[in-house]
Write the structure tokens for this entry.
Amino acid sequence: MTQDAGAPLAAMFINGQFQQAQGGETFVSINPANGQPVARIPFGDDRDARLAVDAAADAFPVWSRLSAAVRARHLHRVADILERRRGEMALVITSEEGKPLHEAQGELQLSIDSLRWYGEEARRAYGSWIPDPVPGRRLLTQRDPVGVCGAIIPWNVPCGMIFRKAAPALAAGCTMVLKPAEATSYVALKIAEVFAEADLPAGVINFVTGKASAIGNVFLTDERVRKISFTGSTETGRVLLRGAADHIKRTSMELGGNAPVILFEDCDLDASLRAVAALKFLNAGQACIGANRIYVQSSIHDEVGRRLADHARQMKVGEGSLPGVAMGPLVDMKAVEKVEELVGDAVRKGASVRAGGSRMQGEAYEKGSFYAPTVLTEVPRTARMHDEEIFGPVAALYAFETEEQAVELANDVPYGLSAYIFTENMDRAIRVGERLETGMVGINEIRLGAAEAPFGGVKMSGIGREGGREGLDEYLETKLLAIRVKG
Ligand code: NAD
């Protein structure tokens, strides 16, 4: 483990106490814009995870028996504190993840909305009285919390993903142990401070940082953990699903994206280009719902390529906390190398570079992991980036001729998280939207997330939904009560 005496020492949050790892080890999280240490983070393992599960299991009987109205008051208090500390929290997100401040603010808003909305929604977790075919019996159902939940968080939405899981879980009456990604552990431990300040009963929510496989293994093997909620790559999701099978655990899997964007020649080109550029370069392309394959009808392919390239060249790239910065760094140099590899492969197979196509040059970028906003046109179907998530600021344009061909291409991958259609022909938008094999479709719209709306994928993009009523169901069991009534 690296040690760095200069960085602040963060602490895990277990059973209402801030503490270091049982093994005493730490690691350093790094600001991807300048290579500076952000914080020293406890490198916990199975021992720490076990303590956290003990705490969550002990807290469950108390927390689950509080009324939903009381739990809602707790969540509103967490939201109030997050709102008050949002300036400080946005800076932490930007310094550890790299995204520009305005994007960090967006994550915080979604987090606050989730806390407030789920606090209230859980008060409406109604059961039902079922018309009974058998005389002298009554059938009713009630909604019970699942129990202790383990949550595993990715680095690219390090704050939003915590609340998308914790808000419905806690509102429903579950208790939780969260494991953030290594790269963004400090964000999570600052969020733990917010929960500590809100003074929830000890053990209701716990944060364990460190060795992913060891902590994950406790979630998989400890009988008391009844559900695992995971957001991350399809590869890791597969490993967790296999492990969860042994103990028949409930799982929610928010996995990889590879979203298609279809630009028809009858779209409102100015508005569509603004939307596609915003979607593509959001979080430097490191978004599960990001534009991975941009299919452009051949009559407008050249113009779209040229205008997107103009936009890419004008973008201000830099440290996300600086004013006017539109795009920050990638999460680390490994991510930059992967983007280089995918661009090299596409160019070798015939794609043309219209903008970018390399790391950012210049002194300001030397210590960070920056890749230039890039536009490639005439990308062939055989390029690796067609089938893999680029997870970088590379707009890959593919030409198509007909509506039928666009739908076939869009569905021709094993993923199905989000898709986007740009057209002014509403018949076409509905026709195509209905045929796309994804959990979400944006029609002349790229913003898909809201606390009120179900978010999630089909095919290899996952199982389950976050957000909306469906997101609460993920943390509830339905219990049937059959009652004999005399007389
Ligand atoms: P990742 O799978 O590498 O890591 C995700 C999390 O899993 C991290 O906390 C990591 O430490 C943990 N992890 C890794 N191996 C583990 C193991 N064996 N046991 C337990 N935990 C383990 O993914 P990432 O690189 O952090 O995130 C990027 C991926 O997440 C992309 O594929 C992206 O599309 C996806 N994502 C999906 C959504 C969605 O809602 N569908 C949202 C955001 C990101």
